[in-house]
Automatic annotation (TrEMBL):
Organism encoding this protein: Linum tenue
Catalytic residues identified in the record: H86 (proton acceptor)
Protein's UniProt name: Peroxidase
PANTHER family: PEROXIDASE 25-RELATED (PTHR31235)
Reactions listed under catalytic activity: 2 a phenolic donor + H2O2 = 2 a phenolic radical donor + 2 H2O
């Protein structure tokens, strides 16, 4: 009996020890899962050539469609680049900027900062072209990333490999715009904070600002800078006086139109000329001029403006675009592959 009791006690003791070990391992696994969730790396699951087997002609079809659109209207290039940027900065690069409003409220495209967005029809055309070949395979989020790259390539020759594998989100809210997108009147501190909140550095800030090498802005956007910069009917002293006078001839107080090139004389070519304009205090936006108010961003502006080809701009722009394209992506089983880019399935 004593032997039996001792044996039972030993078995019980061993079982408790095993249970404790199992519990310890389980708790450690929970902690590791929690930490991995908190430290999830943006872009996990993306890779170049994602559609090589499932839809091998996806990028070719996208490029062909975008080339046709730009041949009709070269300004579409800037619109497509801007669409990708505005998408990634709100909820991440998951095509929420393309969704239409629902009964619950306005979508991102209805927010004030996004009212001037265009190029939605081009994205729809690309989606339709790809769907004919590979229905239900390529996401609208990936199409936005490819369209931005192709737009830059077709207007300046700059090229980078686009990582794909994104999936589309199902939520788009206009009320989320103001807290996420940078405003054109942001100072350098606000710009750095905004980009840092997306995991982007000061270098990414000054490099991605180079997207203003193509595109335009309305008289409404710069009106305050020209006529009421500090609320005292004054002009921004950071703006070249001669350039300010030229703008005032066309942009009247309280005016909405006309539209001005962001990179005067080179707004349809993707190059580093934008930095020359900024260095000469002829950047159109307050946020452009702000690049001269930080040592690191000012040094980059100077370096790119002293070379006809922009020194390292092409390579830098590709790297920063890849990095931006990883913000908040949905991959794997997350989200969906939309059948139509403006609607959830």
């Amino acid at each position: 009996k004593i032997h039996t009791l001792a044996s039972a006690f030993n078995h019980t003791h061993r079982d408790m020890a095993v249970q404790k070990r199992v519990l310890s391992i389980f708790l450690i696994q929970l902690v590791l899962l929690a930490v991995s969730g908190l430290n999830r790396v943006d872009g996990a699951g993306l890779r170049t050539g994602y559609y090589d087997e499932s839809c091998p002609d996806a990028e070719t079809r996208a490029l062909k469609t975008i080339r046709k659109a730009i041949s009709k209207d070269v300004t579409v290039a800037a619109a497509l680049l801007r669409l990708h940027f505005h998408d990634c900065f709100v909820r991440g690069c998951e095509a929420s900027v393309l969704l239409n409003a629902t009964k619950e409220g306005g979508a991102e495209k209805d927010g004030f900062l996004n009212l001037s967005l265009r190029g939605f029809d081009v994205i729809d055309d690309v989606k339709s072209a790809i769907e004919k070949s590979c229905p239900g395979v390529v996401s609208c989020a990936d199409i936005l990333a490819l369209a931005a790259r192709d737009a830059v390539q077709l207007t300046g020759g700059l090229f980078w490999k686009v990582e794909t594998g994104r999936r589309d989100g199902r939520i788009s809210l206009s009320k989320e715009i103001d807290a996420n997108l940078p405003f054109s009147n942001f100072n350098i501190t606000q710009l750095k904070q905004n980009f840092a909140s997306k995991g982007l550095t000061k270098k990414d800030l000054v490099v991605l600002s180079g997207a203003h090498t193509i595109g335009s802005a309305s008289c409404l956007t710069i009106n305050t800078r020209l006529y009421n910069f500090t609320g005292r009917s004054d002009t921004d002293p950071a703006l070249d006086p001669t350039f300010a006078s030229e703008l005032k001839k066309k942009c009247k107080p309280g005016g909405i139109l006309p539209v001005f090139e962001l990179d005067q004389g080179s707004s349809t070519i993707s190059d580093a000329h934008f930095y020359k304009a900024v260095r000469q205090n002829r950047g159109l936006l307050i946020s452009d001029a702000a690049l001269l108010d930080d040592h690191a961003t000012r040094a980059y502006v100077k370096r790119q403006s002293t070379s006809a080809a922009g020194a390292t701009f092409g390579r830098d722009f590709g790297k920063s675009m890849e990095k931006m394209g990883r913000i908040g992506v949905l991959t794997g089983s997350e989200g969906e592959i939309r059948q139509r880019c403006a609607l959830v399935n």
